Amino acid sequence: MDTSQNTALTRALTELPGPLPARGVIHIVIPHTDRFTVVGNHLAQHAGLSTTAVGLAVRIQSLPQGTEIGIKALAARLSEGEKLIAAALRELEAHGYLRRARTRLPSGRIVTRTVFCNQPTALLRPRVVAQRPAPPQTPPPVQDPAPEPPAPEAAAAPQAPALPDVQHEEGHAPQDTAPPHNAPFVPLVPPPTAPKPPRPPLPQPGELTAELERAATALLSDLRRHAHQLVLSENDIRQLAPAVAAWLERDTHPDTIRHTLTNDLPQPLRHPAKLLKHRLTVLLPPPLPGADDLAAPARPRIAVTPFQTCDGCERAFRAPTPGHCRDCRDYRNQHGPTQAAA
After folding, report:
1. Within 13 A of 114's CA, how many CA atoms are on the CB side?
2. 168-189 burial string, b = 16+ CB within 10 Å, else e?
3. Hey, CA dihedral for 32, 36, 42, 46, is it positive or negative?
4. In the chain, where the domains are located
């Protein structure tokens, strides 16, 4: 069987027109007449999708409408496990090819509706809704000289209203006003080419002294002893040294910095300098608080009214200044100061 296949490929190879490339793949293209699916190069050569995600997207496109494409349903058909299929679906969802949303049916049951788009970038362009052609108008029938009266049922039948030129999704009631045909489409998932926010700058110390620079350079150069993937060039160390100096300036122990930079490294690590730059920027600790910041706040002093001795009855009472108590003041107001003294 292998020999016949190789012979057929060799014969087809000799029939290709023009000179063949000396290296690389050679395509023998036979047009499909049935059972084929059109796949765009934007998906087949997508740089941000894994091979598993691309293959799963092609498999989903080839399935008929209404086929279950949940994680368990796909795992029952494919040789990949549920974890690998779930990761591939998340990749397709992040790049706009797939969307999963929970929808309530008219019966009240909540289901998950999965929508797959074979070309998500086309959704970003303004869409033009094709208008439904008007039904052909039939000429009025020629009336006879003595027309018969119409039947009661035919006379009572109302005229069917014209269908409005509004397209709506099945299961949703049409809106009162339709959006204009030239209204831009707002995507639910940002496209891969959307502008990303600027990255935060690399931390810088308040003053890059020679001692801080020497300690930071030594720490970065010594990282490959603790993680063989972190082999940095002299230029990388020169760029990352101020960020490490900013950590040391904030009284961070060198062992803590080393553990932060070497712990849980991705496999494989393609860009060590970019990973260290990200961790030094995002995980920068705050400065240590001073002794005054850690001191307990002073409690507010409560003013206490002192005791006074009444000049009339010599009883003790609280008042800010010496004088008479309340009883003596009331008596003096009623009988006068002379009778109060007597």
Report:
1. 18
2. eeeeeeeeeeeeeeeeeeeeeb
3. negative
4. 2-16+26-124, 210-282, 307-341
pLDDT of residue 168: 41
Query: What pTM, to 2 d.p., does this model score?
Result: 0.36
What pLDDT is stored for residue 155 in this prediction?
Answer: 44
Backbone torsions φ then ψ of 178, nearest 5 degrees: -90, 145
> Which CATH fold topology does 2-16+26-124 show?
Arc Repressor Mutant, subunit A (1.10.10)
All residues at 6 or more sequence positions from 96 whose CB lies less than 8 Å from its CB, including other chains: 117, 120, 121, 123, 187, 189, 190, 191, 192
Within the chain, residue ranges assigned H as helices are 2-14, 41-44, 51-62, 71-77, 82-94, 152-156, 210-221, 223-226, 234-249, 254-262, 272-282, 291-294, 326-341
Q: State the Cα–Cα distance between residues 118 and 127, nearest whole angstrom.
A: 16
Query: Which H/E stretch holds residue 22?
Result: none
pLDDT along the chain (342 residues), means of 10: 63 75 81 86 90 92 87 90 92 89 85 85 68 61 53 46 42 46 55 75 88 92 89 91 91 91 87 91 86 74 85 86 87 70 46
In angstroms, the CA 49 to CA 95 distance is 8
DSSP letter string, 38-97:
---HHHHT-SSS-HHHHHHHHHHHHSPTT---SHHHHHHHSSS-HHHHHHHHHHHHHTTS
Long-range contacts at 83-91 (CB < 8 A, ≥ 24 apart): 84/52, 85/56, 87/50, 87/52, 87/53, 88/50, 88/52, 88/53, 88/56, 89/53, 89/56, 91/48, 91/49, 91/50, 91/53
